Amino acid sequence: MSRLARSCGACGRILVDWNSLPSRAADGQQGKGSLDGLPNVDFRVIGCVDHHANEGFCAPEISPLLITTSGSCASLLVQALGSIGAWPGCQEGDDALSTTREEAQVAQLALAPILIDTANLTAEDKVTPHDTSAHDILHRKINQAGVQASAKHDDFYTQILETKQNSLDLLTVEEVLDRDYKQWTETSSSHPSKPLNIGFCSMVKSISWIVEKAGGPQAFLDKLCTFAAQRELGIVVVMTAFTSKTSDKFCRELLVCALDDGLATDALKSFVSQAASQLGLEEWSARDDDERDILTIKRTLDNEPSRRIWLQTDVTKSRKQVAPLIRGAVASL
């Protein structure tokens, strides 16, 4: 990665797995903006590798500039490293030099998110040629060095999946919410002077799990509201993605909280009307093996119009698809 940074210059920043800074520069210069918590510091983006929808933030002349659809951003990163010669043998058709054991271990590390993001390359709605190509390249490197774990491909996937699912056990509720968190600022045409901050928390455990971890539904809601207040959010979203222990099916839940009675609540209503059928939102019920306090959880977390919780039956839609719908609901007001 250091070679990738050097190839792009030492003074700028490279975005990986996102393609727009939260706040754009006041002078409107493309590719320039600031981060939350550092509003007075402008950063210049000089490279970007991302698989989300292109928000038009990056200047077209930067390099690398690879913003396209893929199941995993790691697949595009492998491609970008190969394209600038930072990782020999990472382009299709390359006759790679012999792979050292250390390089094979790096390849195995790069392979892990590709397998997780694409459900071991079985998620037909996510897998793209970028993913299969990166998988083949990395797998070849691993096999060249004879790294033992590569011999049992499915076992490796199972191992990293279980590790990911259990990685939250030792964290606090606040740390779980912040573990896979993204934030955006949107402005509605009817309230141009009132930008709304939207926070999106993703986790690989169920709502029931984090409620129990917090000490109950109200305790969880209090912690979630505190988390949102610290970040000055108008809307906070919690999306879960987990495999039910009772049915062995992959499940998603969606919790959306509007934290004021004005624009945020209106945006939540707009989101429901525009996206409920698209996402297959249905009345929430527990889908894991712990069905205690279901009614209490529903009464606490589903309180129209400011809080809604659903089962998301279209499990193919991740944050990559849901976040733009929520952002669009704000912008449409």
TrEMBL record:
Enumerate the InterPro entries for this protein. Answer: DHH_sf, DHHA2, DHHA2_dom_sf
Task: Give a single Pfam family match.
Answer: DHHA2
Kindly state one GO CC term assigned in the UniProt record: cytoplasm
Q: Which Gene Ontology MF annotations are present? A: exopolyphosphatase activity
The DHHA2 domain extends over: 157-330
Taxonomically, the superkingdom here is: Eukaryota
- Protein name per its UniProtKB record: DHHA2 domain-containing protein
